[in-house]
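G., before I forget:
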Amino acid sequence: MSTPLLSVEGVHKRFTRKPGLVVQGIDRLTGRTSGYTVHALSDISLAVARGEVLGLVGESGCGKSTLGRIISGIYTPSDGEVSLDGKPVARDRGNNVDKLTTKVQMIHQDPFASLNPRMKVGETIAEGPRVHGFLKSGDARARVRALLEQVGLEGAYADRLPHQFSGGQRQRVAIARALAMEPELLVLDEAVASLDVSIQAQVLNLFMALRRELNLTAVFISHDLSVVRHVCDRVAIMYLGRIVELASAEALYAAPQHPYTKALFASIPTLGTGRAAFQPIKGEIPSPLNPPGGCAFHPRCPMAGPRCKVELPVLKPTLDNGSMVACHLNDGGTGAPEKAEAA
Amino acid sequence: MTKALDVKGLTTRFETRKGMVTAVNGVSFSVERGRIMGLVGESGSGKSVTGFSILGLIDEPGRITDGAVLVDGEDLRSLKPDALRKLRGSKVAMVFQDPMMTLNPVLRVGDQMAMAVRVHEKVSKNAAWEKARQALETVGIPAPAERLKAYPHQLSGGMRQRVAIATALLHRPAVIIADEPTTALDVSIQGQILAEVRRLADETGTAIVWVTHDLAVISSLADDICVMYAGRIVERGTAEAIISAPRHPYTVGLIGSVPSLHEPGTPLPQIPGSTPQLSNLPAGCPFRPRCPRASDICSSEPPSLETAGHFVSCHHPMEAS
């Protein structure tokens, strides 16, 4: 395989809250520590090939947005490395960090919050390339017009303000703004989650058409498994800051391997007739402040054995279909006495 | 079967700077005991205002201008404010989208639930706490006695929503209106709540009106579905009929745009245009500008057609199967 466009290796992200000055003083006197650290991401490794769309799926607090922000260069990882086209991005805080991160553009969830309400959308779209010197002021109008048309809006809309657009149209403007930078990688963070179903279909169609046209590479963050299946080639399922399963969309949806992925599929209502028998996952999502030891999913896992409580499973390829799974079931068993699969 | 809730011609208008806006326009439906009615629509369709209007929770500049809301045969609209307040929480209860907004953050869960008990019933504080504990148990909260002593911020989002549902259930109301109650929750938690709600409707006989934008959720939860568009019910029928044989072009488009029904990577059928401004609706059928089946006749008021309990308001509905 050639160099992947994006590669993330062993990335950790910790958010530390330091106590106030007074408490720090008391801590020093008493020998306590009052600050705390959240491990938002632990040991994340993945790669995205050129032209590929990778889905990041998980529930709130699983770290999918944090990972998206690290890839975009908004956060720097506490450990590990992100490289774009073989060149490290995040650690490099020098001049060329700007040059590299302009190649990654992010599209956010809420187009009501991500567009400046007092700027004409044409100015918003042209601002990035102008600041970075890709675009001369004289060429801006024509370029903006072309971009607006590319995302299915009228070129004349450039002089309008965001409040004159509907939610779906604003999200198109946000996409045009990202495309204006001619990015090599797009990061879409729940980009269709706030849109109505009929509008969501329009924006997904636009994304798929642009992808074909421009051979886009993208990281598509979503909690909606049906949307992810529709637009992604590969999918990473995250739970509490770790990737628990990484597989091609086809393999994942045909046969999910990790118990969490299986449970997630079982608890999601799908459009169908008749009352569905829900098989919800038991229990709550644990707090990332105080994650369970061993496999983070073990308190909710129907398959958990003694080994799951103490030993952290690593992401390993399964034998049959090339999926990667972090589960002891896939790696020698859970240590449960009634383990039958060895026979 | 007795109708727990019977809504007839409900109309709610808001006075705005752009003129009178009809947010709910002649909405009629009924729910029997133990049944779940899904009220589905996109933003601005009037589904939430319908929910609020049923309980009379419409403030200035809005006004319920027409229609009747019968709960167990009693018309809520004919009641004086005092009498209506007595019914709210006892006979008709509401569950809102965001449980963090509806629970009082400075009161323990038990205190606020007991308060809700004692508003409607003359019982001792201890008896009220006991009733609250039983309600928490009904909605599947583990260790309910301890949870009663917790403050809302100590509970997770799913737990808070269970507390809100338990509070709505305290007086065994005939009807619960639930406004997007799982939208703010994670999918695994949503699954838990949906399973509980289905069980509660079956066991307690409470009729539930579930307001949502999510077709997938409602298709697996509800017995009947009303599809709303621009303040009107455009189609109404059993969940099975609406999902498997929709007749209104809007419903057809809505169901068609759900990604899980299509081969991955293929273009999704989409409804062109965007949801209309209620202040500027076209004459006749409000869906006309976006409708693939529209013709000249659609600029006149669409007829109300009903076959075998499947209602549709359209000049050119799909054939009934």
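The CA atoms of residues 293 and 316 of chain B lie 7 Å apart. The radius of gyration of chain B is 20 Å.

More on Monday.
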